[in-house]
Amino acid sequence: MKLLKQWPLLSVAISASLLSGCFDSTSDKPVSQASTTEATQDRIKLAMLLPPRSGLTPLSDDAFKLSRWSTAETLVILDQAGNLAPALATKWEQISPTEWRFELRPNVQFHDHSPFNAKAVVNSLQVAAKATPKPRILDGMNLTIKADGEHAVIVTSSKPDPLLAQRLTSPQLSILSPNAYQANGVINPITAGTGPFVLTAVNGTSSATLNRFNDYWGEKAQASGIDVNFVPDGIARAAALRTDNADIVEAIPVSQAPLLDPSLVHEVPMPRTNTLYLNTRYGVMKDPAVRAAVREAINREQIVNNVYEKRADIAQGLLGPALPWAAKLRQPVEHTVAPADPKGITITLATFTDRTELPEVAVYLAQQLNKAGFTVKQDVREYSQIESDALAGKFDAFILSRATVLDSGDPVAYMYSDFSCKGSFNIAQLCQPEIDQALQVAGSLPAGLERQKAIMAAENLILASDAAIPMLHERVIQGESKRVVGAIRDPRERTLIDSHTYIKNVK
Q1: Which residue, of 84, 113, 286, 399, has the fewest CB within 10 Å?
Q2: DSSP category for residue 454
């Protein structure tokens, strides 16, 4: 077997009150705290940053919620070292340059009690492979999947892919019950996964309910369930932790961390880079000299110190300290175009409110660019309202907090998605044949030093284009109440609660 790898929307007082009603619930409807103290004693109350964007379909970023709740599972997963580990598949092998065989775990059933078998796996993976658009982990990939008897599948790529098994660790390739896939193309994940928690209800973009799945193939969950509340406002999330209305809180804003009990705040360096994307196809940023002027105007240290209160790392490249090999292999970037004199050029700088720090980053960037001679207009909205415009190239500059190894544990997929001519998340509208070629070389190599060197060569070309200007590498700041035990601090943001996470009595 081969192993491969501050824009508050509500007052704190009002938010805390609302959260109390939403979290203390063992049913689909909010009920009063007093009536449910005993009933919810061993349920985990979770405050999440982003609401579902696509109805929790596994083919979107919503898949990572299903993964973090331990309700949907993949054939294989990545361990802490980034190596492949078994999940719904127990064994795997590469049987030809384009074919991989996965042996399926026995005695697994879906939450709707339908059988887990090769037919179900083929169905899930074929839907993903044929989707339009495809999950980003499959950008540039053509896969076929077929059953090999009742308890194995063979996954074939149209071209050799040394990291095909790593791709299958992406939560966007979770295996769901055949009943989840509806005739109209909608995928409904309710009671459709295989994990220790079963998703029983979703209340739009406000909340979700999960209960322990007693027929889970592995260790049964210690907690009886999870009550999820989606809280885009960072101040409200911090208030939920401070007032014991949440046991686990995603993405505590750096401005709120000093206001909390230090024992409740946990920092983890993560593969997430705060990057300024410049539009290389439309508008004034088509000119490399103008992009160079933007690069020279940015003061990263000021942003890290003032916005992130030094709870971030100044970026030297796209890949940060969560990938320690990157800094060792990085070569100096050769910028061949001299910066232009902006002479009052007007540009539109955009970002979104869902990550609390980004609007403040936009304020500092606007000041820095104005000082350099640009005239800056800002466009700041919720992510769901601005994503399509960003992907359509309607802004000169866009600030994005971007995970760099979210899907496969390897940054090639992220680089291809964001910087190749056919990338599905190419906000910079970048298309340079030499970059595509460098990414193809990196993607063709097996995991190891040579692949890492090729990745850094591609990064060097991307940085030289000034299409993306990395500013800082974020650290995840996760809040955990004194009641919670075993919350997972995952730099990849794939896992958060598992079978071993539970609530203890604190007097």
Answers
A1: 113
A2: H
Q: Which residue shows structure tokens 């074919």?
A: 99
- Is residue 26 very low, low, confident or very high in pLDDT (cuts 50, 70, 90)? very low
> In whole angstroms, what is the distance from residue 445 CA to residue 157 CA?
15
The fourth-level CATH superfamily of domain 12-247+481-503 is Periplasmic binding protein-like II (3.40.190.10)
In angstroms, the Cα distances linking 292 to 198, 269, 282, 340, 456 are 51, 29, 16, 7, 21
Residue tagged 């000034």 (tokens): 466
For residue 281, what are the CA distances in angstroms to 97, 286, 287, 369, 471? 37, 5, 9, 20, 22
Asked which of 14-23, 264-273, 404-413, 464-473 is least confident by mean pLDDT, the reply is 14-23
pLDDT in tens, 52-95: 988 899 998 899 999 999 999 999 998 876 788 999 999 999 99
Q: Is the pLDDT of residue 210 over 90?
A: yes
The string of pLDDT tens digits covering residues 284-313 is 999 999 999 999 999 999 999 999 989 899
Q: Longest Cα pair distance anywhere in the chain, in angstroms?
A: 68
Among the listed residues 499, 507, 506, 503, the one whose alpha carbon sits nearest the alpha carbon of residue 195: 499
> Per CATH, the architecture of 269-475 is what?
Roll (3.10)
pLDDT of residue 32: 29
The one-letter amino acid code at 216 reads Y
Say if residues 358 and 399 touch (Cβ distance below 8 Å): yes
Check if 12-247+481-503 and 269-475 are the same fold. Answer: no
Tell me the CA distances in angstroms from 327 to 18, 77, 318, 447, 456, one per residue in order. 45, 26, 10, 17, 9
Closest CA to 26 of 35, 13, 16, 17: 35
Residues whose CB is less than 8 angstroms from the CB of residue 277 and which lie 6 or more positions away in sequence, other chains included: 390, 397, 398, 399, 400, 418, 427, 428, 467, 468
Beta carbons of 174 and 111 less than 8 angstroms apart = no
- Residues of the chain with pLDDT > 70, as a percent, come to 91
Alpha helix positions (H), 46-117? 63-68
* Cβ–Cβ under 8 Å, residues 237 and 479: yes
CB-CB contact of 163 with 4 (8 Å): yes
Q: What is the rounded CA–CA span in Å between residue 489 and residue 318?
A: 22
User: 92 with 76: CB under 8 angstroms?
Assistant: yes
Task: Give domain limits for the chain.
Answer: 12-247+481-503, 269-475
Top-confidence residue, 403 or 220: 220
Chain centre distance of CA 460: 24
Q: Give the Cα separation of 484 and 263 in Å (integer).
A: 12
Side-chain half-sphere exposure of 386, counting CA atoms within 13 A: 18
Q: Which of 242, 289, 291, 281 is nearest to 265 (CA)?
A: 242
Assess whether the previous peptide bond of 359 is cis (omega < 30° from 0): no
Give the 3-state secondary structure of residue 436: helix
